[in-house]
Design brief:
The complex is a heterodimer of chains A (about 270) and B (about 350).
Chain A lengths: L4 E12 L2 E12 L3 E5 L6 H8 L7 E6 L2 E2 L5 H6 L2 E3 L12 H8 L8 H6 L2 H21 L14 H14 L4 E5 L7 H16 L3 E5 L3 H7 L2 E6 L2 E6 L1 H6 L1 H8 L1 H12 L1
Parallel strand pairs in A: 3-8, 3-9, 6-7, 7-8
Antiparallel strand pairs in A: 1-2, 1-4, 4-5, 9-10
Chain B lengths: L1 H18 L3 H26 L7 H17 L1 E4 L5 E4 L4 H22 L6 H20 L1 H4 L12 E4 L3 E4 L3 H23 L2 H11 L1 H6 L4 H27 L9 H14 L6 H18 L4 H18 L4 H22 L2
Antiparallel strand pairs in B: 1-2, 3-4
The chains are: A alpha/beta (about 270), B mainly alpha (about 350).
Chain lengths: ~270, ~350
């Protein structure tokens, strides 16, 4: 983990009534790295995502992004700083065309004021043409170029997940938070998604992801943080994590460890 | 092609009073046109931002009362000595006041509904309309209550070529309402084909996703309510100066329902929807009357037609026709390809 710290979470805790979803979570994401957050269901991974992106008010702790304190900011303000998330469930604008989905994602790139829109100034039409060209570029990057005119809800599952990420990319993130991006994808789709992730990374975008697919996590991550019952139980490279006895006990399981060991020997 | 069609359609509408001198039909068209403006405004909120305003008539009524009071003048006593009085103002100032007053109320509702969506937005809007109606009934000193505001002056405008023109006659009012409707249509079209309209649709389709890409949804919901309310207010003001009497019945729930029916049957979230729905449900009762059908039967036909539209064309008439047309064109293209 080289590079300066982009996101730092310090002693974050989230309580739902008497239930502590997260207790004293601290982690740092360095510029340019891919950090994975793993752990059993209910470990607090998605809660941490929600707190970082402003969808959930933390009960304690501090979140800093590139020198700005995020506590108390609304989700749209967090997004404007360059911290953009995707959702665990498929999340697209189903009733709109794929191209329109991306145009909505380009909201922050657009400078139109309500007054200029009502007056129908020529600058609006010029900007619309520019935005559409940009949207088509993003679609081509995501491999959805041929789907531009279809309805978001008409896409097959894997492509809807891809569209969700393309929408997030349209918002020009510095840090992209992916919440279980390959859940429900078949192995072929997962592989092509891993390749896509490498391309996203090559654009200089830092990635924080939550995922249960260990092949994917081990394959793409520079560093892994493992949560269990709201606490960080391990933090290290994929190689360290898969040998960590605590992680094996809480999450990976003995069988996974044996297979991994066999693979290492081979 | 579509530009030519638009021009022909507009030419037809604007030339209508020149070759059709049935005053009764013109009257029906003027009232229908006013309701179409209201339906266009409701469509922005219901069809695009996805929030059902079941108190939309409040903005219509506030516009009607504001413009009437501004052009009639009023004096109200807060205590025995403190009197707020206003001299009658020209009607165009009344129209402007109606636009601003309704827009301000729209802003208020938008802000109040800061975190209120769906069913709760419906409740806030209904309550608002009911409160405004009660004010209109009970603040007799200002509104004359159920006695109604009478002798509201018609609009007087200085027009090029014509000079000072009073909108007494039906053709003049027809042109006025048609012009306002065209302006409102253009405004909504500009909005929905822009960043603002996309933000409103994003709020309708998926609010968490919309905020995740940086859309301040509250801001755009407020923009939608302000623009929508201001338009409805202008429609109300046009109504007041055309009918020339306003009583608290303008706040009746049935008017909101009429607007909702126009938008939903025409096709919510489409530009032409409220116009088509407005024409059908504005002209239908009069058409049926022309065939000397009894009122009870008229209502039954009205109801059956509505049920049929909602049942078979659940998206509304305009989307159904568009889809049918696209399918036919696609089929035509496939046929052309098949034949070498």
């Amino acid at each position: 983990m080289s590079g300066r710290v982009l996101l730092s979470v310090r002693e974050l805790s989230i309580h739902f009534g008497g239930l502590a979803a997260i207790e004293d979570l601290s982690l740092e994401v360095a510029e340019g790295e891919v950090l994975a957050l793993i752990g059993p269901n209910g470990a607090g991974k998605t809660s941490a995502f929600n707190a970082i992106t402003g969808y959930l008010a933390p009960s304690g702790g501090e979140i800093n992004f590139g020198g700005t304190r995020l506590n108390g900011l609304k989700p749209h303000q967090v997004a404007a700083l360059g911290l953009v998330r995707t959702f665990q469930k498929t999340s697209v604008f189903g009733g709109r065309s794929v191209l329109q989905n991306i145009l909505i994602g380009l909201h922050l790139r657009s400078k139109q004021t309500p007054l200029a829109i009502l007056l129908g100034l020529p600058s609006i039409a010029r900007e619309e043409a520019k935005l559409e060209a940009e949207a088509r570029e993003i679609l081509a990057f995501a491999g959805l170029g041929a789907r531009a005119d279809e309805l978001g809800s008409a896409l097959p599952y894997g492509e809807q997940r891809l569209l969700g990420i393309a929408i997030a990319l349209a918002a020009k993130p510095k840090l992209l938070l992916l919440d279980e991006p390959v859940s429900g994808m078949n192995p072929v789709e997962t592989d092509s998604f891993m390749a896509k992730l490498a391309e996203i990374r090559a654009l200089g975008i830092t990635i924080l992801l939550v995922e249960h697919d260990m092949k994917m996590v081990m394959g793409v991550s520079d560093r892994i943080v493992c949560l269990s019952q709201g606490l960080v139980i391990a933090n290290g490279t994929p190689a360290q994590i898969r040998r960590d006895p605590g992680v094996i006990r809480a999450y990976l399981g003995e069988r996974y460890a044996r297979v991994a060991e066999a693979q290492d020997r081979a | 092609m579509s530009k030519v069609l638009t021009a022909l359609w507009l030419a037809f509408l604007f030339s209508l009073p020149l070759w059709m001198d049935n005053q009764y039909v013109l009257h029906v068209l003027v009232v229908t046109g006013i309701f179409i403006v209201a339906a266009i405004s409701l469509n922005l909120l219901l069809g695009y931002a996805g929030q059902l305003s079941l108190g939309h008539v409040a903005f219509f009524g506030i516009g009607a009362y504001t413009s009437s009071l501004a052009s009639l003048g009023f004096s109200i006593h807060f205590t025995a000595d403190t009197v707020l009085a206003m001299e009658p103002k020209p009607v165009w100032i009344g129209l402007l006041a109606a636009l601003l007053a309704s827009g301000a109320c729209g802003w208020l509702i938008g802000r109040l509904s800061f975190k209120v969506r769906g069913a709760y937005f419906v409740i806030v809007s209904i309550s608002f309309a009911e409160v405004v109606r009660l004010v209109a009934v009970n603040w007799v000193e200002l509104t004359q209550g159920p006695m109604a505001l009478n002798n509201i002056p018609p609009l007087t405008l200085w027009l090029p070529l014509l000079g000072e023109h009073v909108f007494w006659k039906k053709p003049a009012n027809y042109w006025l309402v048609l012009s306002v409707a065209v302006v409102c249509y253009v405004i909504v079209r500009r909005l929905v084909w822009s960043r603002a309209g996309r933000a409103m649709v994003a709020l309708r389709e998926n609010e968490p996703l919309a905020t995740s890409v940086g859309i301040d949804v509250t801001r755009y919901l407020v923009l939608a309510t302000v623009v929508s309310a201001a338009m409805a207010g202008v429609a109300g003001a046009l109504y007041a100066h055309y009918i020339r009497i306003v009583d608290p019945d303008v706040f009746l729930f049935i008017y909101t329902v009429t607007m909702v029916i126009m938008v939903v049957t025409g096709g919510k979230g489409t530009l032409a929807g409220p116009v088509v729905g407005g024409l059908i449900f504005g002209l239908l009762p009069e058409t049926l009357r022309a065939f000397e059908i009894k009122p009870e039967v008229q209502w039954i036909i009205y109801g059956v037609l509505m049920v049929l539209v909602v049942f078979f064309l659940s998206e509304g008439i305009v989307p159904a026709v568009t889809q049918w047309w696209q399918r036919r064109r696609a089929a035509g293209a496939a046929m052309a390809k098949a034949e070498p």
